[in-house]
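Thought: the user wants the 3D structure for the chain below. I'll pass the sequence to the structure tool as-is, report back what it returns, then summarize two notable features.
Action: structure_tool
Action Input:
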Amino acid sequence: MPTSPEMISYALDSNAWPFKEAQNLLKRLEKSGNEKDYVLFETGYGPSGLPHIGTFGEVVRTTMVRQAFQLFSDQPTKLIAYSDDMDGFRKVPGNLPNQEMLEQHLGLPLSKVPDPFGSHESLAHHNNARLCAFLDSFGFDYEFKSATTTYESGEMDATLLKMLRAYDKIMKVILPTLGAERQATYSPFLPLCPRTGKVLQVPIVERKLDAGTVVYIDPETRQHVEVPVTGGGCKMQWKADWAMRWVGLGVDYEMAGKDLMESVKLSSAITRILGAVPPEGFSYELFLDEKGEKISKSKGNGLTMEDWLKYGTPESLSLYMFQSPRKAKKLFFDVIPKTVDEYINHLGKYDEQDGKQKLVNPVWHVHNGNPPAQKLPVTFALLLNLASASNAEDKETLWGYISNYAEGTTPENSPLLDQLAGYALVYYENFVKPHKSYRAPTDRERAALESLIGKLENMADGLPASDYQNEVFAVGNEQGYDNLREWFGALYEILLGQKQGPRMGSFIALYGRAKIIELIRRKLVEN
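Observation:
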């Protein structure tokens, strides 16, 4: 990663949000100090449901801030991905198998609920493994931490005893935020019932500071039960748990979704009660599904990380996470091709840019300051339309056109383009082909298509895309189209069976002049 004074100066002046966040973190450290040998970044995950793309988004965005921080500072850094897998299993997500079996284990810590997939020790172990496998596939530098392990190992014991001593102050912060009914039963400590193993939300009737224990009334036996707050005897309630984690681990930076802003405030207040400084943070907007509803693990709506990677590159997914994190964005299959092409465009420009421009380019953050040198001759959108027009079923067919269009380009010397060809075929098969709807041309459109054939027949092969584009424009003007969008829309619907399509000049250059003439004639005969 570049560390020249000039590059640091550019970064300090940059409006890119990771650089702004890194500067805020530097200010926090300068003000509050840091007793650790490293600066700690954290992301949290609740493994009650399958990991979704928002989980990945938090890790990749935090990593981008970490990378930006490393440009400014030589302090070592660490990233922890923390799974709250000791949380009680309160609701069975609709997208999990073996629903009836899971219903029988409500109330247990997630790390004690049997794995409905039958492959791991528990539901939490299964979901944790899926998350780690995905993060590993991206090459993230992180340390995974399990809440169950940190509680049961005693790593949090000192902080838990601090919280027991500060019980009244913590209650004073939390209770005003709750309704009257919840106030009557609330406690920041959730005992694990020795009889059932369940995480209990019950009032604490006595606290024994010297013994480090709390006493509650068993809701079924009505007996008084005393349990330690240390060693996994209790689980902290959510907002108190977050504060415990910040204090116990010494977290310096953690971002959170906009829906958790009230939790951030309360957890920060508890952190201060415990004599620590809350981490620097960042509030990002939530992802929405196609209907504009919040993506939810329990609903299983929206895209999974695996879904995206069936149709687009990992780098395009990282780019999507980088873009406008403070704006709510719909996250569904239609955004993938657009984002892939945006990545290709940014990557193609990078090598030609000066130092200041490079730090504005999103691929700097996607590739940790070291993007590969790559410029592709075609866009992903063009590949999709090529698959549509040629009815290609394999990459070899697409490469026949690509190699003819961009001489010397091969799968071996352009592996990214080869990847995109594969993605295009899968995306076309699943999302374009099922919705193709050709229509017959009107008399006016038929005359325009005949005219276009004539112009193309008088042109040579291998001309620049702009030459073919000019002729397409000329036909539209000659046929009296006041709005040329109507003319291009007709081309897409008649020739490709879709409402939108490529820049026609580029498509003709890629597909081939003779092939386009053949396609137009076939559609005129069919209709």
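Final Answer: Structure generated. The first helix runs from residue 5 to 13. The first strand starts at residue 39 and ends at 45.
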